[in-house]
What does this fold into?
Amino acid sequence: MSNVTVIQPTISDEKTKIRVAAYCRVSSDSADQINSFMAQVTFYENFLSDSTTQQFVGIYADEGITGTRIDKRDEFKRLMHDCRRGKIDRIITKSISRFSRNTKDCLTSVRELKELGISVLFEKEDIDTANMTDEMMITLMGGLAQEESVSISNNVRWGIRKQMQNGTFIASSVPYGYRLIDKKLIVVKSEAEVVRKIFQMYLEGNGINTIAAELRSLGLERENSEWGKNAVRYILSNEKYIGESTFQKWYMTSTLPYRCKENKGELDKYNVTDHHERIISKEVFQSVQKLIKKRGEVKVGNTYSQCPLSGKIYCGECGTLFKFKQRRTYGCWVCRRHDESAENCSAKQISELDVYNTFVCLYNKLKQNYKQILLPLRSQLQELNLKKFSGNNNVLDIHKEIAQFKEQTHVLARLKTKGFLDDVKYYEQTNEITSKINKLQQKLRQLTQSDDEDDIIEQISLLISILEKDNNMLTEFDDNIFESVVEKIIVKSQTELEFQLIGGMKFKEKC
It folds into this structure.
């Protein structure tokens, strides 16, 4: 007779808790909407706190952000980012319109989440994507939300175009040299002198890069950024400096997702003369436009045409960016400091063709060996990243604290309205609370930004997908592949280059 040995179970039948996250979005910063935002944060913070089957892992909240564009919602992107990395099992959101007002994006996101094994509960519509039959309902409700958004957008556009037609439209962006005061463009004398200098220098034969360098050397300030070639080019081609305004040079598409496009004749343009005080004469402006066209410094599509190597080659000796020089029979790249004086840097020039050929050689080697190099590397990083992740409640705590501070501001506002709080005390206390909220939001941004490890894994995965795209080796330089995978090139010598690829990987290759 056979002997039977009972092997006791080693795994408890206690089910692992489902990790639940909440997503909420507020369309504007009005008081009621902020109250709604605060209410959602407070509600979800207490939601499922006593559940034995579900674990609340955090809130993802976008405030004052459009629902028609996913790429504009940082918290939504972080939510999807964490879902792809196995940190969430279920999502709860107030309604479909809070989740997305773009039907295509809504369905795309829901389908991806279903493939990841993650369900979404839309509370208002009582739709749970765990049930396959709900997708038709999501399409219907998402379509209604999208139509509402499109209708609002069309009404706003109609009003703007009416203002353009009668010449009363004022653009929100004001060019350098002007300030918008009482809905009028007023000349700033000090900046106007800089504008005139730019036009004069260009007419004297100076290039755009030279002008930008001269402005930087003079220490002239420019709001938000330093003087670069694009800033100079924009000024040289802007008709506002002769007192004219051309409206609707660019337009937003009428269907979702909205995209900004250059108006090449699809819609009317509106040119208004004598719109404001001019800085440059029409004769000078027209002379500059002719010279721009003659020199070939014109726009192609939405970008200025340039070599794929531009801005990517750096000197291995002094760290300076290389620049292109055309020799009699070939093109080459040289260190800017060496080009000024050989005493500044001893780095030698490198042929453009050598750079192209060296990249082709490196790419083909990587294509042959990526399974032995990149696949194990990605697996190890993914394993380390999963071990590193733990249910950190810091984000949840900060959201709760922000909500509490916002509630205090509403209490203060009510006290001021009823006369229990004077203006001085009210502004003193609200400023103090606002300062605390700003600090918390800064801390929140630091906590919720993508981990470096996640970014590296994504970039390595992108590189692998490019290498796997086809089985053919490169026989000549491909600028699309180059721009997709190479972040920087360090010239170690005339015979050796170091390619820094996406994902932080560095490979040296002989020329």
About this structure: Confidence is low (pLDDT under 50) at residues 297-305.
